């Protein structure tokens, strides 16, 4: 795992972004320490991770003379006098000509590459009128940062009412190269100055091409807003990803009983094999395995021994500098999750988030030290409902055969959770570790013929989702659609797919000229052209969804 926030402890007056620039790409595998050295992009609550709240949602706001004036997040959170309540009493030149002043908060997602160096155009529409001075250009100086919330004032000569009905948001072009310019916008909140009731425009998607996931969206969105009685409360609402389905949607789709046949492959970082140490070499069984600081589990149960839960964890190697084996921490997480899944005598069995909580408690009870990302997926054999909890840059994708059955296509994808590039969310023994409730929770519906791929960042840093889909198509071919095949054949195919993915991820990791998800994300974050893969432990778990031979649970 890569992280460089340890430098923040050595340079307490330098922001994480500055540390990133100073140490460039040389700082790999460093533990995550959040706290005073962080620039405060996230706040913590019992409901999970929430976006920072701009000052206008908690009190008076500053005003500026331009039609759309920016209030950077770092300034909003720093308590600078420019943004004090006294500043709000000073009228800006734009106020005199404005029929209304609207305060706008644009929230950028927290997945890898979500930020953009580009600015944006924003335009507001009322029920019967539009802002005649728009569109307004914002964010041109610094762009929008991953996980950030950027606030702007829009001075409109047209009174659009307290709640503008629609909003148009357009990402500006990057120039000669669009690499790194894709922008993942979560939502936009608008409130008339001095009010509480406002509008929320839900986007939750890419504007332009994603930097590392192979997803491309339109550069412009026209969105109809939803009224929120208290805009500040809306900032703290629990977030689901675009691909996550609501309970009602899940119940409508959950009509396919499935049986999962799973296999795994682990390739430790080559240098760890040379230096040795506990867990350095790969060790795999039908239900548990590890290599380097990576670990996985496969909980078998349900109908005729089909897998009901799977997980991957990636420990932070750099704890070794403090005499701590983070591999022991990740192995402890997966063992605890496995034990919780297999020993549960309740029905329904624990879901992914409950298993993650059990795993975190397990390593805490054992007083294990270190930190680790964690991705756990649980599947109900009776109806195919998949529930996942993901914390960090490990993750999963769901592949489904195309309508003509010739190729596999990406159906669902977990969120790549980072505080910023190289600083993934992670469970840990230290005070600044993330918690299970900070995990991204998703649910989807599987059907026979689907392929579920879990992996550590060693997989997803080096292979795109499209690479993975192509390799599964070539390896499994149309045979993956033989959903009534024997258990032995299905297990063998799953294991073969896992080995192929791990092998290709390794080849990309040592290729210095490869175009990889990691190199694309690094190019954006460091504002320099970077190529090649990332050498790391690689763990892959592949599960094939098949028709169950009979219902006996």
From TrEMBL:
Q: Where is the PLAT domain?
A: 100-221
The reply to whether Transcription regulation figures as a keyword in the UniProt entry is no
Supply one GO molecular-function term.
metal ion binding
Class of the enzyme per the UniProt entry, highest EC level: hydrolase
Keyword terms: Hydrolase, Magnesium, Manganese, Metal-binding, Protein phosphatase
- Output the Pfam families linked to this UniProt entry: SpoIIE
Q: Which InterPro entries match?
A: PLAT/LH2_dom (IPR001024), PLAT/LH2_dom_sf (IPR036392), PPM-type-like_dom_sf (IPR036457), PPM-type_phosphatase-like_dom (IPR001932), PPTC7 (IPR039123)
Domain spans labelled PPM-type phosphatase: 277-545
Per its record, the protein catalyses: O-phospho-L-seryl-[protein] + H2O = L-seryl-[protein] + phosphate; O-phospho-L-threonyl-[protein] + H2O = L-threonyl-[protein] + phosphate
Q: Which EC numbers characterise this protein's activity in its record?
A: 3.1.3.16
Q: Which cofactor does it need?
A: Mn(2+); Mg(2+)
Q: Does the keyword GTP-binding apply?
A: no
What's the family? Belongs to the PP2C family.
Q: Which PANTHER family match?
A: PROTEIN PHOSPHATASE 2C, PROTEIN PHOSPHATASE PTC7 HOMOLOG
Q: What is this protein called?
A: Protein phosphatase
What organism does this protein naturally occur in? Pycnococcus provasolii
């Amino acid at each position: 795992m890569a992280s460089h926030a340890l430098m923040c402890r050595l340079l307490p007056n330098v922001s994480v972004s500055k540390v990133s620039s100073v140490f460039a790409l040389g700082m790999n595998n460093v533990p995550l320490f959040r706290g005073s050295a962080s620039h405060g992009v996230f706040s913590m609550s019992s409901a999970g991770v929430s976006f920072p709240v701009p000052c206008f949602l908690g009190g008076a706001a500053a005003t500026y003379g331009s039609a759309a004036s920016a209030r950077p997040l770092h300034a909003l959170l720093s308590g600078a006098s420019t943004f004090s309540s006294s500043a709000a009493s000073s009228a800006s030149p734009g106020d005199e000509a404005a029929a209304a002043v609207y305060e706008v908060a644009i929230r950028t997602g927290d997945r890898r590459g979500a930020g953009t160096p580009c600015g944006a155009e924003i335009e507001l529409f009322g029920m019967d009128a539009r802002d005649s001075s728009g569109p307004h250009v914002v964010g041109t100086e610094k762009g929008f940062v991953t996980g950030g919330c950027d606030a702007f004032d829009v001075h409109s000569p047209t009174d659009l009412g307290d709640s503008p009905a629609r909003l148009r948001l357009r990402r500006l072009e990057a120039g000669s190269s669009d690499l790194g310019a894709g922008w993942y916008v979560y939502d936009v909140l608008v409130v008339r100055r001095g009010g509480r009731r406002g509008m929320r425009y839900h986007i939750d998607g890419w504007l332009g091409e994603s930097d590392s996931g192979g997803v491309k969206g339109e550069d412009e969105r026209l969105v109809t807003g939803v009224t929120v009685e208290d805009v500040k409360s809306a900032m703290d609402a629990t977030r689901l990803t675009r691909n996550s389905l609501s309970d009602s949607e899940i119940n409508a789709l959950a009509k396919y009983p499935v049986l999962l046949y799973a296999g795994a492959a682990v390739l430790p970082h080559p240098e760890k094999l040379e230096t040795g140490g506990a867990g350095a070499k790969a060790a795999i069984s039908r239900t548990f395995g590890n290599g380097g600081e990576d670990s996985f589990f496969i909980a078998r149960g349900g109908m005729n021994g089909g897998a009901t839960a799977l997980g991957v964890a990636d420990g932070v190697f750099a704890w070794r500098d403090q005499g701590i084996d983070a591999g022991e921490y990740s192995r402890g997480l997966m063992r605890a999750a496995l034990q919780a899944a297999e020993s549960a005598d309740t029905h329904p069995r624990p879901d992914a988030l409950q298993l993650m909580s059990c795993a975190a408690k397990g390593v805490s009870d054992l007083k294990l030290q270190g930190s680790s990302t964690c991705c756990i997926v649980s599947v109900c054999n009776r109806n195919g409902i998949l529930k996942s909890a993901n914390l960090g840059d490990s993750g999963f994708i769901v592949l489904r055969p195309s309508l003509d059955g010739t190729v596999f296509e990406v159906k669902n994808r977990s969120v790549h959770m980072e505080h910023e590039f190289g600083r993934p969310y992670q469970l840990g023994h230290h005070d600044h570790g993330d918690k299970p409730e900070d995990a991204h929770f998703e649910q989807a519906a599987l059907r026979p013929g689907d392929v579920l791929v879990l992996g550590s960042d060693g997989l997803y840093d080096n292979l795109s989702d499209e690479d993975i889909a192509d390799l599964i198509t070539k390896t499994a071919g149309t045979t993956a659609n033989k959903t009534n095949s024997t258990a032995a054949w299905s297990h063998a195919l799953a294991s073969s797919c896992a080995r192929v993915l791990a092998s290709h991820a390794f080849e990309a990791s040592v290729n210095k000229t490869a175009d990889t998800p990691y190199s694309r994300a690094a190019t954006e974050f460091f504002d320099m052209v970077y190529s090649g893969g990332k050498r790391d432990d690689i763990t892959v778990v592949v599960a094939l969804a098949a028709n169950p031979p009979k219902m006996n649970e």
